[in-house]
Amino acid sequence: MIEVTNPYSGEVDFRFEAVGVDDLIARCAALRARQPGWHANGLPARIEALTALSASLVRHRVAIVDALAADTGRRLLAEGELSSLLGSLARWCALAPGLMSEAAGQSAVPGLSYRNQWVPLPLVGVISPWNFPLVLAMIDAVPALLAGCAVVIKPSEVTPRFIEPLRRAISEVEALGPVLALVEGDGATGRALIDQVDAVCFTGSLRTGRKVAEAAAQAFIPAFLELGGKDPVIVTASADPQRAAATVLRASVLATGQACQSLERVYVHRSLQQPFLEELLRLCAEVQLNWPDPAAGQLGPFIWPQQAAIVQAQLDEAVARGARVLCGGQVEVHGGRWLRPTVLVDVDHRMAVMREETFGPVMPVMAYDTEEEAIALANDSEYGLSAAVIAGSLTEAERIALRLDAGGVSLNDGSLTAVMHECEKHSFKCSGLGGSRMGPAGFTRFFRRKALIYQSGEPLSIQIFSERPR
Ligand code: NAD
């Protein structure tokens, strides 16, 4: 049995059994067997099934949100996760028909023509993390199902409570149950799953992502990896310090900083540092924990208790190396673990808090003097998930954004990649691998293109390859 700690109370209040490997193999075989029928029914039937899933999710809304709130220690974001999933289902159902263009044409070689057949990957495996348990379990599953794949999802062992109510909602859609399964388990189950699928969509840490990439290479399947980040924000001298501080605060501490696209490094032009910090500290003081009243405040607990220890260790190391804490800075234990918005100054790139993913409500602020310096500092990271630029004009912000080594850049705001699903976006450097999960490619990557090449003339004879005398 795997024991699960409640992030709010800090007590173990949930236990579950991981699926055994034989059972996992059998379930994957059953999904694989049903996939051709799911695909053969056609896209309109699949859209109908996923629309029915939306209706079923709405019927099961209370149970799913209750379980998610227990998983994560926060209710409003749990409700937001369900709404986001409903939005994603509606969006992909509307978009998918327009993305299925099977190409056909003539070759430059006389007599030859071709047609592309789009062949879905039979079984897609999804391995998801704990920070947005529902959204990240379903984010790749929805387009994969629409593409005609069967899908098996292995959510994080840290947040498993939502699985059962979600499973009940899925089971009410007759067409979907046979091709969409959720399996409980930990890292060992995730590892075993990779050997049973035709592609793996993994969202999680870089450390685990490397292991998943290796296992996928051994299994010789594509791996779509969405990993961690250390997102920088550059605030230029022309920015409005009030607007910049409010944006940085929201985009850094939302969800207790437990979002891959959280801003984790703040570079402010030296001339703006003082008014920016004054406003940031004023706003930080207004942020409340959702403790002791779970229905109040803006800041939930750490979902995974060990994350609090990781964040505290980064803060302690930074202070030991000369950083100053202007607010927050100490994890509070009230059963679960909370950290108030934390602002650090006198930081540099030797410190883990400027290099490693923090995944907490921490804003280390560094002053810069020139645009070149700001860009160099922002790009000085092994990660390249996303970034932000806050300037006096979008033109100035764009000039800087074009030079940032990151897959998505928010201009005059922060963390916009969380709400912009329409455009394609790669994860640069160690933040990911394997194509965009957003935009059209988020759907088309689940197909292989088969080329049917038609000969309407005479096939070549071997004689035309006869050697000739010089
Ligand atoms: P994690 O890497 O610890 O675990 C993720 C999943 O991998 C879990 O389901 C886990 O059981 C499974 N797993 C563990 N070992 C495995 C193995 N050897 N083989 C296969 N699966 C294995 O990540 P986490 O701590 O749950 O999530 C936080 C991380 O996720 C952060 O780094 C965050 O930035 C990242 N994340 C990225 C995105 C993105 O879109 N780029 C989104 C959200 C979270």
Given helix and strand content, the structural type is alpha/beta
CATH class of the largest domain equals Alpha Beta
The ligands found in this model are: nicotinamide-adenine-dinucleotide
Average pLDDT works out at 97
- Uncertain segments are none
Estimate the global geometry from the Cα principal axes.
Answer: globular
**What's the story with the biggest beta sheet?**
7 strands, mixed
Number of domains: 2
Order of adjacent strands in the largest pleated sheet:
12-15-16-11-10-18-19
Secondary-structure arrangement, i.e. CATH architecture of the largest domain: 3-Layer(aba) Sandwich
What would you give as the CATH superfamily of the largest domain? Answer: Aldehyde Dehydrogenase, Chain A, domain 1
Number of helical regions? 16
- Termini gap: 79 Å
The CATH topology assignment of the largest domain is Aldehyde Dehydrogenase, Chain A, domain 1
Strand content: 15-25%
**What is the helical fraction, as a range of percent?**
25-40%
- Gyration radius from CA atoms, angstroms: 25 Å
Find the count of extended strands (DSSP E, 2+ residues): 22
